[in-house]
Amino acid sequence: MSITITKRLEIDAGHRLLKHESKCRNVHGHRYIFDFTVASKEGLDSVGRIVDFSVIKEKLGGWLDANWDHAMIVQEGDPLIDWLKAHEQKFYSVPFSPTAENLVEYMAKVASELIRDWLEVIEVVCYETPTSKAVWKR
Known about the structure:
The chain is an alpha/beta fold. It has helices spanning 53-67, 80-86, 100-115; strands spanning 5-15, 28-40, 71-75, 91-94, 119-129, 132-137. It contains three helices and six strands, in the order E-E-H-E-H-E-H-E-E. A six-stranded mixed beta sheet has the order 4-3-1-2-5-6, sandwiched between helices.
C-alpha cells in the first residue's frame, strides 16, 4: 500500500520566453498553481498522517512566496534584468527559459531539497493557466 498527500499552492508571477515565436515573448503574468504530492519515508505518524499539510505550506509555500510570488521569473542574460534591478523590482533569474516544463522540473528539485529528510516528492504539477499544465513525476 502506498499513501500520498497533495498540497496545492498558488502564486502570481510574471515571465517571458525570449525565443518564443509568438506573443509569449512579451512580458506577461500567470496565476501559477503548484500541486505537490509527497509520500512519507517512515510511514504514518502517531496521528495517522504523512505530515500536517501546514508543514508543506510552510516549507514549499514559504520558498515560493520568498522567491517567485509577485516576481518576474527571467532567464539569465535577459536584458530585462537590468531594468528590474534599476527599478528595485522583485525578480528571480533561472539558467533556462522559464516555461512551465522547466519551472516544474526546477520546483521538483527545490521541493526535494527542502523536505528530503522525511518526505519524498512523488509528483509536482505546475498549472500555468487553468487549462495548461506541466507535470514532473519521480
